[in-house]
Amino acid sequence: MFTTVTIIIAILLTFLLTVIPFAIWYFIVLPAKRKAMAKEAKENAEKEAEVIKQKKLLEVKEKFLSKRAELEKEVRKHNQQIQQSENRIKQREMQLNQKQDELTRRKQEADAQRQRMETQQALLEKKEEEVNARFSDLINQERTRLEEISGLSAEEARERLVESLKDEAKTNAAAYINEIMDDARMTANKEAKRIIIQTIQRVATETAVENSVTVFHIDNDEVKGRIIGREGRNIRALEAATGVEIVVDDTPEAIVISAFDPVRREICRLALHQLVSDGRIHPARIEEVVAKVKKQIEEEILETGKRTTIDLGIHGLHPELIRIVGKMKYRSSYGQNLLQHARETANLCAVMASELGLNPKKAKRAGLLHDIGKVPDEEPELPHALYGAKLAEKYKEQAEICNAIGAHHDEMEMTTLLAPIVQVCDAISGARPGARREIVEAYIKRLKDLEDIAMSHPGVVKTYAIQAGRELRVIVGADKIDDKQTEQLSTDIATKIQNEMTYPGQVKITVIRETRSIAYAK
User: Fold this and answer.
1) Which comes out higher in pLDDT, residue 5 or 188?
2) Entry pTM
3) How far is residue 276 from each of residues 31, 270, 281, measured CA to CA in Å?
């Protein structure tokens, strides 16, 4: 028991001896050290802060001194500029004062000069009055002397002199006018011939022959039976689909397609070619092939119109006008292909407009479109020129283009210089040798019939069919028909020609009545 207590006491004493020094160090010595260290750190921080503060103050002071030096430099520079400006202003002020003194001196000199001139002017006026008075006296004296010598007053002499000068001036003016007119007429004819010949020489094109039938060639006559079909069903279906008349006769290896519309004939020919090549010929197949060929022809028409406008350098045409131009390929006039005629006329118009100093692009455009009235989608009641002008106006062409189209056959009044150019070039293209073909006998007979119809009317002296039968000149006697009757005569002749003759295009009737007075100087 004693031993255990002794051990415990020993342990306690050992613990106390160990813990008490640690507690003394932890609670007394360590806080004292920490406090000393904190105080030392604070003193060090304050010293460092003071050092940094002094350093910053030095930097700020240096910057302040630098800025102050720069500002003083700027102020000195500004003061120098102000001083220079003041010097320049003073110099200008001195110059202005000198100029003002000079102006004042010149003004004084000018005033003195003006006074001298006024004095001289007064002297001149006075002398002029004296001279006028003396001159008037001399004129009066001379007039009185002349009146006494001639026995005429001054008014009568003046009137005679004026009449004499008038007669002389009229004679000279009439001679001068006649000379100018003759020279202008000779020059104009020569220049017109040169332009027309040069235009024709520079433009040429191939021509085509107008037909109303197309011959479709076949390999053997057995194909004819297949085209006709059982009880004629195939041929009736083909005629109904294409709008043409198909003639199947004894002509070997040939079938005749007849129609006045060349587009329909071409559609029928191409459809027949596809049907015969394929071998399947029946009404349903015929309708299918014809519809396909029509679409191909329409595409070809558009392509032809576009290619034509591109070749001629014409831009901005309405798509419908382009289609009409392409459709001209399948139309001919007097044996001349209409598209080739339009292209040739367009080129002629461009050349002639350039020679005359006009716009060649507008002239070429009018020349290409001048016959669009000949290929209508529907049958119009108007002549082709007026219908063409109406179409051009509908598709927003310029007014001068529309007038040139409508007036190229004198069915509309010409309002621009393009109209006579288109008219002349259309006649050149149509009248060129080889451009159009017609049977000689029929041509001569038509001209003779025209002249005979005109000669059948009373009062007609002579008749001439000119311009390939396009115009009929009728000369009447002045003693048999008056002016009013000539107008009625032209209408009667035109009506009779319309009722009794068949002719392409139109015929212009011109009735000429003149009075000639002949005298002989012996």
Assistant:
1) 5
2) 0.47
3) 127, 10, 7
